[in-house]
Task: structure prediction
Amino acid sequence: MQALIERIKKEGRNLGNGILKVDGFINHQVDPGLMDQCGQEFARRFHAIGATKILTAEISGIAPALTTAFHMKLPVVYARKHKPITMPDQVFLTLTPSHTKGRIVELIISPEYLAGGEKVLIIDDFLASGATILGLVRLANSAGAQVVGIGALVEKTFEGGRQALQHLGIPIETLARIRQMDGDQIIFED
Amino acid sequence: MQALIERIKKEGRNLGNGILKVDGFINHQVDPGLMDQCGQEFARRFHAIGATKILTAEISGIAPALTTAFHMKLPVVYARKHKPITMPDQVFLTLTPSHTKGRIVELIISPEYLAGGEKVLIIDDFLASGATILGLVRLANSAGAQVVGIGALVEKTFEGGRQALQHLGIPIETLARIRQMDGDQIIFED
Result:
């Protein structure tokens, strides 16, 4: 999506080790107009997959998942990384490595909000190695729900996430695809 | 705001110890249409305060802050509770007790996204004791920014947060005001 690609070109910064700094408009400061446009675009691309719920992971996935959910008129659930006291004792929990945190994190969903038979669209900020999204897929499956689509704002195609998700056989849509980050250069797929 | 009050009456649950469970539409599963209505309402109530930026705290503040920011056409910054590697080494940090977590949490903002002279509207999900919001006020002040308004979806008036913020002399707007929670009963202010 051109607006997102232009913004990354203008403000994104390569911090090395595959880390892209986009915290001026995606994951610390957020541009709500841009997030709304991204949500509209996901809604357009996924309008025909029959999703009944949007699923994401806190924290950075919340903004794009919320705007997508708004335009698709669906509820959104964000997997928690720490179990809050408002959640029942019996939960769905999976472990997933976090590249940017350098450790294993928990992803937790209450069975109250993900039921068997749901058709889930996963929306996140990044598709890198695919580890977080695979964690969300495991959570959905343990709830008896079916994942019917995956969307991410930014894909780092050089980290292999798309290949890791290919076996699911479902549509994967990303709005900005980065092929390479080299010094000050961020190079997008054509 | 009637839509929010009705939803709390229908789905909110008193878990005891002043804890209100609203994780079916605010802070685990989110109703994006309701959040959009709340954002519109905050935008209406705060349209004349001259805010230049919305400030909130991760995680549950993000949804209402984002929709408010969208309707006010302002950027939104969410204070992080753990410093991500994309943030510079020098940050604004404050400590605040978390009632629902039962421990002290950090609130961290990058100086890149909160500058002197900014006029800040704080939006959060709950106004209870006011501790988290006072933490955000300290962060804004240490950046040289001025807080010009405070909004929360749900106020628990029996926890004294409004009194704790009164010395700031700025508008405080909440969309559902709960006077008492007693067994299965959630009693709203008139």
Observations:
- Chain A has one domain: 2-188.
- Chain A touches chain B through 43 residues (CB under 8 Å).
- The first strand of chain A starts at residue 13 and ends at 14.
- Chain A has a mean pLDDT of 96.
